[in-house]
Amino acid sequence: MPRGARLDAPGTLHHVMVRGIEGNRIVSDDADRTFFVSRMGKVSAATGTKIFAWALMTNHAHILLESGALGLSTFMRKLLTGYASWYNRRHQRHGHLFQNRYKSIVCEEEPYFHRLVSYIHLNPLRAGLVGSVEELESYRWSGHAVVMNKIQHDWQDRVHVLGYFGERESSARKAYSEFVASEFGLGRQEELTGGGLIRSIGGWSEVKSLRNRGEKQFSDERILGSGDFVREILDAVEDSVKERLPAVSRDEEAEERLKIACEKAGIMVLAMQGGCRMRECSALRKKLAVEYVRELGMSYAGAARLLGISAAAVNLIVRRSCE
To answer: Three-state SS for 104?
Structure first.
């Protein structure tokens, strides 16, 4: 299946997510974390990339950035290739460290910027790496401490972030901190991890409401924003790229997850999709069905086609997972 084209131009806001291959760790200790953060800063300065928010987790990382003149792909290649080479030498390992294709979502700044900053910076708290919002203020491996002026990284644009919360430094920091705390209370906000109609509009209920009113919204899986913003981004893409625009990133991600999960469980993908009823297959279907619908925003029918079960079965699995 062909991959969706990258959408990028200097000055484009991206939410980038990069994961370890097969879900493996990308950092093993603080020396790794220090080098990753340092390299991110050096590469951002060298490529003119603005970093607004970031969180380095054990097996993945989030970065909210504005691409520079050299583009997103140059920044990511220099960051990931350089870090992976260093990590492999240090830990005497071989092979890929990261999944081959990082995920990048073009974001509409005005309605989403402050929420994306908060979402990314709250990752360590949601994962239990810190115990509270207060502890997060001194946590070295996310950009929250930089915004709060507890840690200094000259390459992170904290001024732009605080500008969303006030004109004076002290009052803006306070407002930002209060906003982050309030956003944590909302739990996981899955619409901020991907584009597409469902996530951009705000869930199936809003999509159905639009349809009932006979209204249409333009959408694309690689873009988080309003219909007008999506159209504007796509109109800016060169004609040679537009010919390759089918938004398949979600389906690619789903197929990749299925392949990796089956390999780990020792199950043939064809057996899975052929309706295998072994206990291991059933358990894996339940896990993937929930991920496909809740994380990737897939339809029940789309998830069912990949998992070898009916759409009704996917619906039942997802409903039971919420009980």
So the answer is: strand
